[in-house]
Input
Amino acid sequence: MAAGLRAVRRWGLVAAAPPRLAFTRSASVVKKANSGQPNWLRVGMAFGTSAAVWAFLIKEHDEDVMEYEKRQQERRHKCTGCS
Output
C-alpha cells in the first residue's frame, strides 16, 4: 500500500486542495482522553447498563428453564383420565 501512495505522489495524481480551503477550520475537535480524571457518569452508565442486561438475561433464562421443566412434566404425565 505504501508503494502505491509513493507512486501517486511521484506522478502527481493527488489533486491539490483549493487555496481557500487550506485555512478553514474543522467543525469537530478531538480531545486527548484524560485517564487521570475519568468521566464517572459515563463509567456508571456503562456498568449499570451491563448489569441491567445481565439481570434481564438471567431472568429470561430462569423463565425458559421453568417452561422447559413444565413441558417435560406434561409430556411424562400419562393419565387416562386427563386425555
Notes: The chain has a mean pLDDT of 80. DSSP finds two helices and no strands in the chain.
